[in-house]
Specification:
The structure is a homodimer of 82-residue chains.
Chain A lengths: L2 E8 L6 H12 L7 E11 L6 H15 L5 E9 L1
Antiparallel strand pairs in A: 1-2, 1-3
């Protein structure tokens, strides 16, 4: 199925308590080389037809304005998977 | 910073109420061509040294056993970003 994938992450200078908790648990479990963890969102937009450049432009707009909160999050990737 | 990115999505045959709500909102907003939305997680594991094949193997294991719940989720991608 054609889809556009929008990836959203908490801003780098922002605390991510969920990621911090996972990093602590991994380190307790012996994964000493993992220095940090950040947890964001991976959002798939599904289409029932091939994806056009206009769809991708729309998806970028939706990502910035609707799927993410620009105060605390960045859209790090918008990709097409046809 | 070198990182491994683990992408986790709800299984295809599982309801995703959050994704459904977003899809409904997008359709109300005029994006009629978006037929469905699924929302998963994008998890970054950070390293302070270059990532090895062993790290990647570890990350796949961590993804399957710790970062996702195999009953309801699939790890769809594990990628290195050096």
């Amino acid at each position: 199925m054609p889809k556009i994938i929008v990836e959203v992450m908490p801003k780098a200078d922002l605390l991510d308590p969920q990621g911090k908790a996972v990093a602590n648990a991994l380190q307790r479990g012996g994964n000493k080389d993992i220095k940090g963890v950040r947890i964001g969102k991976r959002i798939e937009l599904h289409f029932d037809r091939p994806i056009t450049d206009a769809d991708l432009a729309d998806a970028r707009k939706i990502g910035d304005e609707f799927l993410s909160n620009a105060v605390i999050e960045d859209v790090v990737n918008v990709t097409v998977e046809n």
